[in-house]
Amino acid sequence: MSSSSPATAPAATNSSSQEGMQLGALQLDAEAMYLTLLKAVRAWAATAPDGFRLVGITSGGAWLAQRLQADLGLPGAAGVISSAMHRDDFASRGLASTAQTSLPFEVNGTHVLLVDDVLYTGRTIRAVLNELFDYGRPASVTLAVLVDRGGRELPVEAALAAARLSLPASQKLALARREDGQLSLLVGHAQRSA
Q1: pTM of the full predicted structure?
Q2: Cα angle: 145, vertex 146, 152; to 5 degrees
Q3: What is the C-alpha to C-alpha distance for residues 173 and 183, in angstroms, rounded to an integer?
Q4: Residue 30 in 3-state DSSP?
Q5: Banded model confidence at residue 95, pLDDT cuts 50, 70, 90
Q6: Per 3-state DSSP, what percentage of the chain is helix, strand, and coil (rounded to 5)?
Q7: Does 96 have pLDDT greater than 80?
Q8: What is the four-CA torsion angle of 159, 10, 34, 143, rounded to 10 degrees?
Q9: Is 57 exposed, middle or buried (0-12, 13-18, 19+ CB in 10 A)?
Q10: Contact 145/128 with Cβ under 8 angstroms?
Q11: Per-residue pLDDT tens for 102-142?
Q12: Are β-strands 21-23 and 183-189 bridged in parallel, bridged antiparallel, or unpaired?
């Protein structure tokens, strides 16, 4: 991960908009958070090494990376990476049919901006880094997330986060995308494996 200090911008508000997901008194507007993340990534990109590549983690991170790729006017396609093959709970979760890694660039020596929707324990990031290194050795990896929800089990830190908040382990936060591309955040009860 990049050793730069984490950037956080306000995208969680107390408004009563119908667009976002209501969590207690906290309003989470995924579209507003995306704009905050886009602004943070633009600022990062202004000082980033030339030729950096975006890689989104399946599926919410991939949606974000594809949208960032277009909004930043970057050439080519964003990469998509799956954590499935390196998860520490692979035996219980199995391999999702849609979880395919596609990196349309040479990984060796490339500066990678890894994008995810929700950072929680850090275990997915660990699995994704293992997958990335299966394709080569990047020059650097910087992590950008829409929401850092705390609860880390591994020493993983997002350099860029649109929002940082704390949720109990009993709650699950997930990004959803409508057919028109609009993003929303969904909250539900987490199911912990025994």
Answers
A1: 0.83
A2: 55
A3: 13
A4: helix
A5: low
A6: 25, 30, 45
A7: no
A8: 10
A9: buried
A10: no
A11: 999 999 999 999 999 999 999 999 999 999 999 999 999 99
A12: unpaired
